[in-house]
Amino acid sequence: MVRSPSIDKNGIKRGAWSEDEDNKLRAFVERYGHPNWRQLPKYAGLMRCGKSCRLRWMNYLRPGLKKGNYSLEEEQLIIKLHEELGNRWSVIAAKLEGRSDNDVKNHWHAHLKKRVRSTNCVNNSSSMEQFTESSQTGGPSQLNEQSGSENDVVVDTSATLLQPTSFPELSSSDLYSTSNSLLNGITDWIEEESVEQLSIFSSLGLLPDSFSCTKSVDNFQTQHFDHFWTQPFDNFWTQPFF
DNA sequence: AAAGCTCCCAACCGCGTACTA
DNA sequence: TTAGTACGCGGTTGGGAGCTT
């Protein structure tokens, strides 16, 4: 997953960091700080460029950095801030305790971007607005009220799907994927079935409350996942250091 | 079993900005 | 004012791991 270590023509090492290098950098920065990244590797006994040292420290070694799964709240905040600020990853990361800009950026490209895109696609509207709005209030928005004619059959049950407390070992991304698959399955099924069957399905509490379905006489459309994220889820440079 | 593909994270690169002489 | 230097940011890439065929 990391680049193979190599040494360029200037004798600067590149690629993946070894444990020994990490230890040297960590020990040096914790003892002396980092007032001059360019000079640091020389005094820390590292064959790296200052830029590489800074990056390694900021994204991996810095104390208080969180690694691993993002919480629902963190993901909501990233999406909200990205909508407001664009790709200003350092500003966004600063709002998230223990996350680096690189980490936030990677998580966005790997998980959140396509999620936002698909949500926008499904809803064909300002879903992010609803997303962030409902995230703040903690409750579901009122999509059903936007549904049109009296011929519409509106379903919005109180059943829930894939609570994180039930699946603590799954990340929110995993839960999202699984729930999305299930909901797509339900959607496909509903598109093939009658309104009557849909009503039965609803009355039995078998639809999640993140799911709403509108069926008009001449126009069938499903709307789901708008509320998924609102569900309860859970001058000392005088001597070399080494 | 193995070849090909996709995902995703760590690291690199280039550019803009701040600072200093 | 300008040139040089260092830093920080955001875009991009490399490549291992896991998945699919």
UniProtKB/TrEMBL annotation:
Coiled coil: none annotated. The keyword Nucleus applies. Residues 9-61, 62-116 form the HTH myb-type domain. Residues 9-61, 62-112 form the Myb-like domain. The keyword Glycosyltransferase does not apply. It is found in: Nucleus. It holds the Pfam family Myb_DNA-binding. It comes from the Eukaryota. Keywords: DNA-binding, Nucleus. Residues 125-150 are annotated as: Disordered. PANTHER family: MYB FAMILY TRANSCRIPTION FACTOR, MYB-RELATED PROTEIN MYB4-LIKE. This is Uncharacterized protein. The lineage of its organism: Eukaryota, Viridiplantae, Streptophyta, Embryophyta, Tracheophyta.
